[in-house]
Amino acid sequence: MGETLTILGLESSCDDTAAAVVRQGAAGTEILSSVVLGQSDLHAAFGGVVPEIAARAHAEKLDIAVRRALETAGVTLARIDAIAVTAGPGLIGGVLAGVMLAKGIAAGAGLPLIGVNHLAAHALTPRLTHALPYPYLMLLVSGGHCQLLTVRGPEAFTRLGGTIDDAPGEAFDKVARLLGLPQPGGPAVEREAAAGCATRFALPRPLLDRPGCDLSFSGLKTAVLRQRDMLIAEQGGLTRQDRADLCAAFQAAVAEVLAEKTRRALAASAAPALAVAGGVAANAAIRAALERVAEDAGAAHVAPPLRLCTDNAAIVAYAGAELFRAGRHDGMDLAARPRWPLDSAQPALIGGGRKGAKA
Amino acid sequence: MLSGDRLIAARAEEMGRGQAERLLPMLEEMLVEAGVGWSDLDALGVGTGPGNFTGLRIAVAAARGLALSLGIPAIGVSGFDVIHAATLEPHVAVIPGPRGRLYARRPGEAADLVDTAEAEVQGLPLAGLPEPAALAEAVARLASARRGEDAPPPAPLYIRPPDAAPAREAPPVILDDA
Predict the structure, then answer these.
(1) What is the CATH architecture assignment of A5-131+307-340?
(2) What is the DSSP letter of A249?
(3) Would you state the pLDDT for residue B170?
(4) Is the confidence at residue A354, as pLDDT, over 70?
(5) Does B152 touch chain A (CB under 8 A)?
(6) Cβ contact A105–B68 (<8 Å)
(7) Percentage above 90 pLDDT, chain B
(8) C-alpha to C-alpha distances, A248 to A146, A206, B176, B177, nearest whole angstrom
(9) Which residues participate in Fe cation binding (chain A) (predicted)?
């Protein structure tokens, strides 16, 4: 494992402005600080993340998050070994602000700079939290992404499947909007679903009838909309029970599809462990379904704590530590990449064409 | 780059894209050519626009990062300040904006995004920015003059709030609440 590394991490690829200091050595990994400045209030009126609003906030808040992370960790830049920054994929305005701030810090402090793939940072989280050995199967399930990956090293990923349209987190947000629930939709829908009956409404299980590990959530969202509109046409509105039942049916459909596709991927990869990351992993019903999948397959199940499943900079710093040990450095010409697939050997699931695969 | 009042170096490269990749390497080349290091700098000036949002964020974020690591101030200087400082007679400072419009400001007044006709209506001559290398020099000179002033960290001058429409979808009626 070599000497102990202290890494400063920066994250600004969506709507969380984050900085963290992580120390990694033979004794394990310690998060010395992890500062996350959320932007939900800024985006609340718009029913989703507005890229220009996010970019403006990142550009003026990220250095404040860095100062706070260093202060909380009780270290100065002189004690830092390298700067790790999310260089993509994500909303380009925020990623650019992060990359440029990181370059400024690295240049002025004479420190190495490491561009980190945001998805890799999530995918390596079980190593940060549980020192999980390679290889393992990772279900990355968030507001922007849904992929099943075999993880063999800090830059070695094989994608077994992924969503061909929306990410589940997006679908949760949309369903919340359709039903007049607050954003973010995940916790709101889960809360409602707890009081609902999952079998009253029959919602589809997209792509479950097809072989392979690809997923789809767009049709499920539309099915909720249709069911809602039918109820409104009949009754002139929704009852609280209607709403709870729709949430329960939707959540059950997402959990079932994720569980079945994960079961297939686990069988295909033959990895000894299943790990989950991303904000949607916070959903208790989905978590329970995935635990059963792992148990049935005789695989270990690792679910990092929620604060490390959602966007944060500690996972970026940790990924940076692994890359640094592998000899990876970037120059001051490091580019911000809105699209940056983890497994470029696979054909694009979304966003093909001139700009290439999204993720 | 200034040493006191003396101009050590000024450079501009025209590029349609790629500023984020080029900015730091270009600054490092200038330092090397001048025989100085990052730690020799006492302050940084950064242009805050108005202008292309992405370009402004590239420069402002880099300046804030350098200020943080070097422990020196980063001082934001707007394009309007540059024009006002260089123009002695009454004028309207104008900077090209999106879709052929102009960011315009009269000294001491608030800036706005206007059409050329609106900028001209006041009957004052329009004054614009110098060419890029001279603009960078002017930013450095104004920043140097403001050292020691208590100012917030540099932030892009956007003039207009972001283009974003509030959520249009009305939530469904909840019958129990009626």
Answers:
(1) 2-Layer Sandwich (3.30)
(2) H
(3) 82
(4) no
(5) no
(6) yes
(7) 84
(8) 21, 17, 19, 21
(9) 118, 122, 311
